[in-house]
Specification:
It is a single chain. By secondary structure, the protein is of the alpha/beta class. It has one domain: 3-Layer(aba) Sandwich (Rossmann fold). A seven-stranded parallel beta sheet has the order 5-4-3-6-11-12-13, sandwiched between helices. It starts with 6 loop residues before the first strand and ends in a 38-residue tail after the last helix.
Length: 408
Amino acid sequence: MIVKPKIRGFICTSAHPDGCRAQVDAMIRMLEQRLPIVGPKRVLVIGASTGYGLATRAAAAFGAGAATLGVCYERPGSERRTATAGWYNTQALEAQATKRGLYARTINADAFSQETKQQVIDTLRRDLGPVDLVVYSLAAPRRQEADGSISTSVIKPVGSPYYGKTLDLTTNEVRDIRVEPATDEEIAATVRVMGGDDWAAWIDCLADAGLLAPNATTLAYSYVGPSLTFAIYRDGTIGRAKDDLEHTAACLRERYAGLRLNARVAVAKAVVTQASAAIPSVPLYITLLFAVMKRQGSHEGTAEQMFRLLSEHVYGPLGRLDDAGRYRVDDLELDPAVQHDVIARWQRVTSDNIRQLADIEGYWQDFHRLFGFGIDGVDYDRDIDLLAENHYPGSSLGADLEERTDSD
């Protein structure tokens, strides 16, 4: 198959194996050119295949020389459909780690399930022993409960409707939107999926099994953003879940004070992800933010931020926490000069002037790169055997995979 992007709105249903691996390889080269991180040596990353989870795993492995065990839930390829980007990303990271003599294995399963937690416990007992860094970076839209029921998150305001501007990703036009407020049931379901309950369950399992090292750190990721997006994000259903995440961090520090556990929420800047593309107003804000930060020379991707988080804050000389006890690497985004310029552009932006005020091209370039497209040096006319791509040399992912079809 000649693999091309298949995009509908903010969803891409294909991924290019060569492009995804080239992207990961470039991230690893960048990390290895920086000063080593004097940091963790045995790392568990839950939600390890894309975004900040993938970047943290890469920073720990190739910046600190850590052994890493990842958990993700990715789909392999079939005869007529590519694997997910996370599948190819994980293959690339594992293969590069293997070349360098670093332990890197991945468990591809539902992170919410008790069976997956037990599989991780068994793997750690066999291979690594107690971990000194646990990263919780899930961005799942739903959660299957133990009784088989499904909790589904929503992106809605709380209390009153949201009125604002947004970017229509099918037309690149600016339009006004109204989003109705969430019900109490929707708020509770969003907290259930995106809050701290499962993070705490992972830490409890590790501690009960004796696999949480003394003085370990555990991180979960969050976003605050500017006042422009508060009504739909920080003060909305997702914000309620993030509040629960922060409450969980404090509870974990207290619960495991005897182990001196450093449980923290880390706040990063806005980046292009498939998840962020679904949030009203956020894609428009990102295009304006990118235009300003790139002009200033302060723009960062996920890998740069996670390197900075580990090297400067968690294991470095700064170690600064905000008033809520969170690590912050969104400082460049929230710089007053940046936000002043972004707000001025937000007030003026229309469909007619968006290409002058915003970085539409950069947004879509980043979006395509999430799925391995638009990467220099990749032959996008290569005929690819999608089943063969499930088994990549040097990677554990797919090693025990049985033949699959589109009907699986």
